[in-house]
Amino acid sequence: MSKMIDIRVHETHALSYMTLRRTIGLTAIALPLVLVFGKWLVDGPGVARSISAYYYTGMRDVMVGSLCAIALFLLSYKGYDRRDDWTGNIACALALAVALVPTAPPTITPGAVTRLQSILSGVHSLSAGGFFLTLAYFSYCLFTKGDAHSTPRKIWRNRIYRSCGIIIALCALGLGLVHGLPDTAFVHQWRATFWLEAVGIWAFGWSWFTKGEGILRDLEI
């Protein structure tokens, strides 16, 4: 009887972790879309220069709230060993920094940003870059751990994790390159920062949704 109870408790915990992973994934996948369409409804059409720039639109609370929710999910996430736990804690801290330390406000006047705003914007950018790299590490290194004899679906899941990790890392690299360009560069007119962030966030979301067995779940024997 006691053994059956232990099995049920274990299954309940496993299901709750799967639900947590899927929730993180779906929240991330939805975030860029909600921000774009929400701004269109609240402030009018147009895509902001970056995900962070939505802090200065009517979608501020949605952006900050979603990032804080993702941060709390990551904090509560418990993996197989301390690497998972520490990575989740670091990702949580970086996500909170991105949410609560705003980037510099949009401006077309050179030198209009104050020194404090410039410092906060630098902290925000470094936190965002670290957050992306941490997510890439989650997908590429941690999610691919498993038994030596993997199931066919586990092999496919690992391919998704590695692909998502590479995409996130490339987006982080692209963001670093775009960030170094002058404000007058043509890529800013095409909202390169926003789209790089959006693709990286979507890759992060799909990786976690897959980890939560939203797709490619192992077949029960």
How would you describe this protein?
This protein has helices at 2-42, 60-76, 82-100, 115-142, 152-179, 186-189, 192-211. By secondary structure, it is mainly alpha-helical. Helices cover 71% and strands 0% of the residues. The chain is built from seven helices and no strands. It starts with a helix and ends in a 10-residue tail after the last helix. The model is unreliable at 1-13 (pLDDT under 50). It has one domain (11-104, 112-211).
Oligomeric status of the shown chains? single chain
- Alpha plus pi helix count: 7
What percentage of residues falls in helices of 4 or more residues?
A: over 70%
User: Could you spell the SSE succession in H and E letters?
Assistant: HHHHHHH
The major sheet is characterized as: none
Question: How far is it from the N-terminal to the C-terminal residue, by CA?
Answer: 24 Å
Structural class: mainly alpha
Q: How many distinct folded domains?
A: 1
Features:
7 helices, mainly alpha, disordered N terminus, 221 residues
Write a concise synopsis of the structure shown.
With 221 residues, the protein is mainly α. It contains 7 helices and no strands. The protein has one domain.
SSE layout:
Layout lengths: L1 H41 L17 H17 L5 H19 L14 H28 L9 H28 L6 H4 L2 H20 L10
Helix pairs in contact: 1-2, 1-7, 2-3, 3-4, 4-5, 4-7, 5-7
